[in-house]
Amino acid sequence: MPVIVLGAAVVAAGGRETPRAEVAARSGPAARVQPPDDERPGADDARAEALAYFRLRDHEGDAVRHVTDVWQSGDYLRVYTDLGEGDVNARPALRLCGWAARFLTDGGEETPRVFVHGHSRDDGAIVLANRRTATDDCRVD
């Protein structure tokens, strides 16, 4: 099925929006997060859609405030946060992981893969939560 990208909305052939696009359209523009120096084409659209999706679900506002960047590549979504290495399996990381997996599923991915990253002085962007298979619960062992 051909897909046409219009701003932050994804419209399938026949003019029907996907659930993810409907969420992004209802939630309005997302604030721009800190982009890396090497901007990729379409990165702002994916970032804005994911942030809008997360904000709609974060009623307490305690998880999305930690997001510094979002990158999507195929069925992979990487959510970068300001959380530290001591926040492995922390509530905000697990919530972001679950929402990111649902975001990809709503976008048509059958097996979404998600990595929520935090900062470490020694190791750069460490994994705080992830989902690599359909049965993963986002917890890191």
Structure description:
This protein has three helices and six strands; from the N terminus they run E-E-H-H-E-E-H-E-E. By secondary structure, it is α+β, with helices and mostly antiparallel strands. Helix 1 crosses helix 2 and helix 2 (43-57) crosses helix 3 (91-106). The longest helix is centred in the last third of the chain and has 16 residues, at 91-106.
What's the structural blueprint in terms of helices and strands?
Elements: E1 3-6, E2 9-12, H1 19-27, H2 43-57, E3 67-73, E4 76-84, H3 91-106, E5 113-120, E6 124-131
Parallel strand pairs: 4-5
Antiparallel strand pairs: 1-2, 3-4, 5-6
Helix pairs in contact: 1-2, 2-3
Characterize this entry briefly.
By secondary structure, this protein is α+β, with helices and mostly antiparallel strands. Helix content is 28%, strand content 28%.
Write a concise keyword list for the protein shown above.
6 strands, two-stranded antiparallel ribbon, single chain, alpha+beta, 3 helices, 141 residues, disordered N terminus
Output the radius of gyration: 15 Å
Shape: globular
Share of helix among residues? 25-40%
Question: Which sheet architecture does the biggest sheet show?
Answer: 4 strands, mixed
* SS element count, helices: 3
Structural class: alpha+beta
Oligomeric state as shown = single chain
Low-pLDDT sequence parts:
1-18, 20-41
Order of helices and strands: EEHHEEHEE
Number of strands: 6
